[in-house]
Design goal:
The chain is of the alpha+beta class and about 220 residues long. It is about 50% helix and about 20% strand.
Length: about 220
């Protein structure tokens, strides 16, 4: 039988030396199907949100032009509205429930659009920045110029290890939402995780790069 030579997998992360520590840069692993799906949903949700806004602006502009053509000026339009104030008030009172329902529906799609755009951007350009120093450890999730930073004091860090997620959290939707990783940081009475979408071999490399700068873990 033919022998297949397996090429070693190159690590996805890079290591940078700092003045008093080290920084590990871990780009997000790109899944083409997830990116395509999230990209499609981003376009779809954006169009769904922007289309009504465009329609309202167009309708308001057309009504304003019609009012100018009929009454000659903005003051004429306002005067006509004041004359018909009773009818306008009755019409608005009937439309308020409709506006509330449409507003809730529209707000939901705005939030959905922001949610999809965030995860699409995270899949496309997201990365983790993990820094270790004698002060402790920080984990930053970065998308373009936006950053979410979590800092952990050295005194409360008891271990840094490979830590698989509990089976109840293995659902892919949970992973999409929570962004938990393979490396476990025992901090106080809780385990925090980082190191997204890496194998155990690369997780060991990252731990080996971080531990020398965390003095209380050097003997663990």
């Amino acid at each position: 039988m033919p022998t297949k030579h397996i090429q070693p997998q190159l690590p996805r992360h890079t290591v940078e030396a700092l003045d008093d520590g080290v920084r590990v840069i871990l780009p997000r692993r790109k899944n083409i199907w997830t990116i395509l799906w999230l990209g499609f949903m981003s376009i779809y949700s954006s169009l769904f949100v922007l289309a009504p806004i465009s329609m309202v602006i167009t309708l308001a502009t057309e009504m304003f032009r019609t009012g100018l053509a009929e009454y000659g000026s903005l003051s004429g339009i306002l005067q006509a509205i004041s004359v018909e104030s009773d009818n306008v008030s009755k019409t608005l009172s009937l439309l308020i429930p409709v506006f509330l329902v449409l507003g809730l529906f529209f707000s939901f799609f705005v939030l959905f659009m922001l949610f999809v755009l965030y995860h699409f951007s995270w899949q496309l350009v997201g990365r983790e920045l993990i820094e270790a120093s004698p002060m402790g450890l920080s984990v930053t999730k970065q998308i373009f110029g936006w950053r979410q930073i979590k800092e952990y004091s050295l005194d409360s860090i008891s271990d840094l290890r490979i830590s698989a997620l509990p089976e109840r959290f293995s659902n892919p939707f949970y992973r999409l939402l929570k962004h938990d990783g393979v490396i476990g940081l025992d901090y106080g009475a809780k385990t925090y995780r980082f190191g997204l979408d890496i194998d155990e071999a690369e997780a060991k490399m990252i731990i080996a790069a971080l531990k020398p700068f965390l003095p209380n873990l050097n003997n663990s």
